[in-house]
Design goal:
Layout: E1 20-27, E2 33-38, E3 41-47, E4 50-52, H1 55-58, E5 60-63, E6 70-78, E7 83-95, H2 99-110, E8 114-120, E9 125-128, E10 134-142, E11 152-161, E12 166-168
Parallel strand pairs: 3-12
Antiparallel strand pairs: 1-5, 1-8, 2-3, 3-4, 6-7, 7-11, 8-9, 9-12, 10-11
Length: 173
């Protein structure tokens, strides 16, 4: 039986936190993203011929203000077509409208394939889009209205994959 359930899921302790601490992003346009994965956990990543040995040395850090960024995974399942796929969406938020930040936002939007790995507030790393990568799907720049409003921008990065997102154990530093 190819889709045999192998275990159940028990109730966990209430020691969990929401949100994203930061994201590592790398342009993978025109390159294959290759992972060594077992049971949904990635232990090695390559982009083309380049091995990602440490996230902080090989990728660009996009730091997040606490309680602003998030990640959502939605599974889509079709009985009629016999298909299963997952959409991972990461929303990154940056305070203060500045030309240099907007230039980086534009570069992210222009890339056809991004390797995106986020660190959640539980200290776990997650790969967005798995081997197929992610693309920017929307962005917003806003001035705010009142003095207490956000002046800054957000960008949404979306990955599609036949499997649920992978946890990543590649070293950070």
């Amino acid at each position: 039986m190819p889709c045999e359930i192998t275990s159940g899921i028990s109730l966990d302790c209430r020691d969990n936190a929401g949100g994203i601490e930061y994201a590592y992003i790398l342009d993978a346009t025109g390159e294959d993203i290759t992972v060594t994965e077992a049971a949904g956990v990635v232990s090695a990543i390559s982009v083309g011929a380049t091995s990602i040995t440490t996230l902080s040395a090989d990728m660009f850090l996009f730091d997040q203000v606490r309680q602003t960024a998030n990640m959502t995974e939605t599974g889509t399942f079709s009985d009629e077509n016999g298909t299963v796929f997952f959409s991972n969406v990461v929303n990154l938020v940056f305070n203060k409208l500045e030309a240099t930040k907007l230039q980086q936002l534009t570069l992210l939007a222009q890339n056809a394939k991004l390797l995106v790995i986020v660190k959640d507030n539980n200290g776990k790393f997650w790969m967005v889009g798995n081997e197929r990568g992610a693309v920017a799907t929307s962005s917003t720049a806003e001035s705010g209205t009142a003095f207490g409003d956000r002046n800054g921008f957000s960008i949404e990065l979306t990955g599609l994959a036949p499997d649920a997102m992978f946890e990543v154990t590649v070293a950070e530093s």
